[in-house]
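Lab meeting minutes (informal)
Scribe: AK
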Amino acid sequence: MTTSPESEHPIKAYGYAARDTSGLLSPLTFSRRATGEKDVRFKVLYCGICHSDLHVVKNEWGFTKYPITPGHEIVGVVTEVGSKVEKFKIGDKVGVGCLVGSCRSCQGCVTDYEQYCPKNVATYGTPSYDGTQTYGGYSDHMVADEHFVLRWPENLPLDAGAPLLCAGITTYSPLRYFGLDKPGTKVGVVGLGGLGHVAVKMAKAFGAEVTVFSTTPAKEKEAIEGLKADHFINSKDEHQMQAARGTLDGIIDTVSGNHPIAPLLNALTPHGKLVLVGLPEKPLDVSAFSLIMGRKTLAGSSIGGLKETQEMLDFAAKHGITADIEIIPIDYVNTAMERLVKSDVRYRFVIDVANSIKAEKHPIKAYGYAARDTSGLLSPLTFSRRATGEKDVRFKVLYCGICHSDLHVVKNEWGFTKYPITPGHEIVGVVTEVGSKVENFKIGDKVGVGCLVGSCRSCQSCASDYEQYCDKQVQTYGFTNFDGTQTYGGYSDHMVSDEHFVLRWPENLPLDSGAPLLCAGITTYSPLKYFGLDKPGTKVGVVGLGGLGHVAVKMAKAFGAEVTVFSTSPAKEKEAIEGLKADHFVNSKDELQMQAARGTLDGIIDTVSANHPIAPLLNALTPHGKLVLVGAPEKPLEVAAFSLIMGRKLVAGSNIGGIKETQEMLDFAAKHGITADIELIPIDYVNTAMERLLKSDVRYRFVIDVANSIKAE
């Protein structure tokens, strides 16, 4: 009877695995062996993503057995050692690279080249000696015989050092073996990716004069200034390649794509060595003549043995060599793989395993509505939220607005949705629990949460109260939180958030019709303030009279502006003038009306997301006028530089607002009686509401009566 991955060994493990040739990775519970007498068990802290991981999860090399958990650039801290382990103790920092087993008796093994043992056991995806499959480092812990465990140097960073367990030894070993480690040796490195950039660093540390070959001229600055290479050659430039003939003692070729070898052999001096560490798919075209006439060598090299890998780590620590990395959480791994295919990383992804891989869900049960696929249809979902931390505020959700962006996200129209997804970022409710260090809220307070629930709190944007522009911002739903889990929005019975991102609700601001202000309100208030369009008498245009536009009119009027509404729907004129008290209405399809509006406005807030012409709006501005986009049309804008230059006009964008400004906006709205015009609905009407929203069949914002309609099963 076949044994499942979860039951073949006694120790439960948790990781991410691919299950078929799509290569998509998802959580897998499996098992690892008990700690044997010569075994070291360790908690995985970081694991690098190697390009070979991508090949293997998609079975591009033809030997993958699913499910497969990749990862052979693994570092961590020892949690248990066997009774006969001599070199390690609990608490030691360690690494495991590409191998976890070999016969220990063949010629390769006895000469410390275990990588060439015919019975070697790769760290993942190969049968171990007990017949079970090995699982790699995209997992919470590892166990390995101490011979294959590496002591981690004290001053070598764990995260940026992890890729050295493959990229480091793959480049260090051939430099040493082929005698390219002598000061003054002239060494070429082909390719400037995950392997190549480390090869440059290793060769420079040996004292070599390094020449980088790349087909990408844009990499020259990085090669010379960033990595301190001595020369750069565009390998597509025949003149540069001709000038390089006969100049190099050796070349480390890191490129896996098919590429010509002859020009590289020509670049070698007599007795020169071209060493392949990348794996092109097609056979090489090699002229025997080019080897014979200069006694040149074409060779290959695969990683290194355990003794040499330890030497490499100590060498890297001594010379400050690390990989250039981008740290990611485990649930970003599929996106990272997609980017790796496009070479969209500089230069190596490293998974922050310990801080993002979680075997257990959050402890607090929650209930909401979620979309599960690109149909966007929402249905009940039971999920979980974290326990209330010391700086957290937990609140019962009373109302949640439906934003047009919710519609885009549930259908994955912007391309980044991870299902299941619970939308909602216009959330108001009443506090039910606060953490021990919360200072600004107490149980019973009315509160709101808008589009953000996290940011780094230390970058320039955060320090300037513009958290919405923080590179590490965490949005209220569909984003990865700092604990590695996904955020869930306000189409749910309760929320929990750090108090910094919780807003005090003004006493006289209605909860239901005020909820949309947490997106529509701040999206329009912020650019009016930032671009100086908040002064009485300022002439402000508002393009579009929908969920955003009608709030923009109210905000601008409250600032004392003279407001002109632009709309393609003449029927909206009465609502704009009589209902919202705008001063003027322009049918933007009427050329005469648009002509009459030329040069009349100090600024325009453009709320329209559909594709529409920009030139007529720029014409409506006075000199020094500002056209600010808060809607995001799908197609690029057509902007004539002349129309900007001749009036010193500007086109700008604006995205919501920071937490401090959002609180100011709520207080301003309460003072001036500003709310959204809403239609209140129960949660089970949400799919119909989405259909109507698609047709602009709402005046002007749907708000879900969450507390009175969502019921946990």
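Next up, CB showed the second protein from the same session:
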Amino acid sequence: MLPTPSEPRFVKRQHSDLNTTFRGILHPSSTSEARLHQYLGIKYASIPARFRQSKLCTKYPPVVNATEYGPICPQPQGCMEELLFGVDPASMPCQNLKQDEMECLNLNITCPAGLNQFSRVPVMLWVHGGGDRGSGSHWAYDGAPLVRQSIKAGKPVILITFNFRIGFLGFAANPMIRDDNKEAGEEGTGNYGLRDQQRCLEWVHRNILGFGGDPDNITLFGASSGAADIICHLLSRSNQTNPMFARAIIQSAVFEPTLPDVATAGWQLSRIISALHVSDMEKLREVKVDKLLGLGMTLRIVDDGVFFRDGWMDYFAHTHSGRRSEHKHPRKPSGQRSGSLLRPPAAHPHTHLHPHVSHSGSRSRSQARSTPKRRSISRSSSRSAVDDTLQPLIIGDSVSDSLLWSMNASLWTPSGATRRIKAICQSLTKASCLLRAYDITSYTPDEEIVDRVLELVNDARVAWPTECIAENAKRERGGHGVWRYVFDQEGPYRGIPHHAADIMYLFDTVPLAESCLATPDVYSGDFFDGPFDTSDDEGDAKSDATPRAGYDDADWETTAVTEYSYNNVRDAIQGKWLAFAYGDMPWREDKVFVFGPEGETGERSTVIFEGRRRKELWKSALEPLGHQVVSKVGLELSRGPG
């Protein structure tokens, strides 16, 4: 009899390389056909001090308790995923994760039972989003449904989620912190969260063989700020010289192509440091962590001159003549083998979990921990070889990712938005072109301005950068190795496409009440609790914006998500992601894969992309401004006035 959630059954995994035994659990959703083991809260790195780079964990006690989630990085209250999903709090699993600044670097492994060191199944490593909040231990990222589906499909995988430093603790940088890092013998400053992620990759590459995974076949996948982090890893110096993953999936990345250097980041941080009344590193480290929460909302990645590869900014270069700019391939590190990225992958057991020792499985553990080979994408037709130091990618976005910022966008007035855009562009001609393209004027009706601002924010912060990254990645890979998708499926609770809706279908963990699979309705109100009403009873402006109950002037029609459409999109995205993890071509490279609306899935001509995204408008209105200005427009509008 399988365990119930209140009666966990414990399992053990002897890890000979680490000379320890991990004590995990049999997942409560296990069945006789798909028994799932989980090892939770395994510490992968240690933090020597605040604002110091993490150190890989290599030694463990004889027995490691891996039956419960470990601590997560301290963060403000509230969960971005739950806000976005729109799930009734009463329907959500109860979860109370401990927060600990120095003990938050831990990972969670979900794997099929019965694996051994010769199984070498693909590994999928999830990078969570959320900006200055969120964790890989959130219930929404439980790997059991996806791993169970992988067994059912005959493509078993190991799925890993993990925690890293975020917000102020993960991304603060200024010259004072940089000098302290130098004194400690560390190269680079800031980006502590990114370097934590590198330590996790290193741990997985060294040790996943002991859990039955293939260290040479790791797929990084993530959404939102997690997807942006994956872009940073693709463009990092370490990925040039010592790549640790074989391929990547980028889902609705909120990525800013223009990153501050340490001096600029320090100027932005100076006001925060001043408010804390600290003047040196010792005092900054003594500040209680509670006082730092919420200070990192605008702190993210910095270009410290060390983390990123030389010339990484050229990745976002544009020529405005309509011709594509030429990109140089990164220099191939010495010792890297030339050859096709698209060669057949090593054989993996697709239909059983106790494979015979294969040719690839007979390698020694020391060989298995060497620099990973680039896994191929299987093809039946001939094709050009591309630089095999470049990982293949799946990349896409949602039609309404900007609903993430709808609360702030609802505060704009037509005249306020128009003035702000003109001020940022600093060119009346270019500003006029941008305003015309998105039909924004001082006379735009109040009930329409929010939608138009959100369209511009969506393109500036997600859709256009995603397209630029996809196009430049394909060009850098010789025209191959990049697969484009659009996710326009409605969220099962909100009935409209929105940021993070794809996560609900991919992980299949959100409890679906019968009411959300019912009849069509009209969704009235802002994306979260309703737009802010900024006037008092007399009509005068108020200094503090407060939410109002509804937004009757701009009701959005919603579409009921039927059980069929939910299952169809869920099965499609899970199947494509699993196939990609196995090195299979997910769909034709010259096609775009669509997820939704209303349950639609399949390969479509690139012509459909033109109809679903404002590609021609990007060329005429955004390219002339350049990424720096467009990024600033998107940021300013998404933060609201004031």
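CB comment: The two ends are 60 Å apart (CA to CA).
No objections, moving on.
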